[in-house]
Amino acid sequence: MKLLLKILALISLSSLVPVQAHHSFSLHFDMSRQIEIRGTVVDFKLRSPHASMVVDGISYIDGEPQEATAQRWEIESSAAAGLRRMGISQDSFQSGDEITIMANPNREPGYRFVNSSTFIKGEKRFSRADSAPYENVSSGELAQLAGIDRLAGRWSSPGGFGSGMILPLNEKGREAWDSYDAKLSPANTCEPMNFPDMFNAPYLFDLRLEDEAAVLYNQAWEVTRRVPLNGKLVRPRLDGLFGVVRASVEGETLVLESGGYIPSRWGLGSATQKLGGGADMPGSARKTLTERFSVSEDGQTLIYEYTLKDPIYLSQPYIGRHELARIADDTPMYEYKCELEAASMFSRNSNDESLIIGD
Prior knowledge:
Helix content: 10-25%
CATH topology of the largest domain: Lipocalin
Strand content: 25-35%
Radius of gyration: 21 Å
Number of strands: 18
Shape: globular
Order of helices and strands: HHEEEEHEEEHEHEEEEEEEEEEH
Number of helices: 6
CATH superfamily of the largest domain: Calycin beta-barrel core domain
């Protein structure tokens, strides 16, 4: 039994990190440790950016109980899209169900708020390791496409994570990054992650060409940017969070140029992704971004290249690159639909209120 638990722990640990994009696990949860919680479901909410579960149960380490009686545990899990890929629906876990959870404990001693994406209910095991892989697109289908039409399709980002700052910060930028406060992060409020770091989030991305316009849709935060290909400036979002943008075509490359952003506490980078490197990096009204979309020779890889500028925080432009894999166009694109309580788990600690039970 102990050997089985250790194997499950290793599988669970290896499957946790890639899809959780909302916050750094190591800050809140001890990724080097695994506990097993056996108990009864009190509440389950399938939502984004984090699903949640409340369980009355006892924790076990190597098969040994750590409490004499059942305690209330709160579990943070993946966003709805990730869990749905694992076969989980809102009806999968009902109040009163017996359940076993493989979880990473909180770093705060005695705080029974843990993280998991591995659930065992009866004979059914739900985990990321059991998710079906995305279906690929055949080279024969792609051979029929030419020019910029080769960009159209559904793409999957593997995620781009970082643990250290890679942007060329000036003195003011370093001061802003060093003074990061997770409680003040826009991640708590459902403000969408900004570009280009949005593409480092491990979600799906659609690029379509219709009516002389490029339509770019990021599954995370359900962000749509519809940009005419005639160079006309448009504002993808009325509040200016994503600036004003225009598009052009250079051979087989789609180019987006944007400016006019409103300041944001994570306008240049998110603590959870590559460009934040562990802390949110603010962006100013002087931020500009050039994005270039092209595809590999075989059409299976979307190449996202960008030049990011912000003289308020950066000493020089940052040039980056990220690759996304083509997947079948009919791959389910599950809704994201950020909910405030789910978002606020980003910086949750033992001083915060308990999770709400029920609707």
